[in-house]
TrEMBL record:
<feature type="compositionally biased region" description="Basic and acidic residues">
    <location>
        <begin position="1"/>
        <end position="11"/>
    </location>
</feature>
<feature type="region of interest" description="Disordered">
    <location>
        <begin position="1"/>
        <end position="24"/>
    </location>
</feature>
<protein>
    <submittedName>
        <fullName>Uncharacterized protein</fullName>
    </submittedName>
</protein>
């Protein structure tokens, strides 16, 4: 990645906290190269990305809701 500091991200569906280690283009190419059965759900894709050392998954209990609110919102 070209940024100086790693940026934290949250998966749109499921709110999983992660940090990318590669560019979005590299990650997209990797995902596109996976066979269809390994792209069936976001959990599988994120596990594949972590196993390939393209992202770091954080098991810190920090999640975001569907509105992007870290830790959830009153509507959740």
């Amino acid at each position: 990645m070209t940024s100086r500091e790693p940026q934290e991200h949250f998966a749109l569906h499921g709110g999983t906290h992660f940090t990318p280690k590669e560019s979005p283009e590299s990650i997209n190419r990797f995902v596109a190269s996976l066979p269809p059965e390994r792209r069936e759900n976001l959990y599988e894709i994120m596990k594949e990305l972590a196993d390939a050392d393209l992202i770091t998954l954080h098991n810190d209990g920090l999640l975001a809701d569907g509105e992007g609110e870290i830790g959830g919102s009153d509507d959740c």
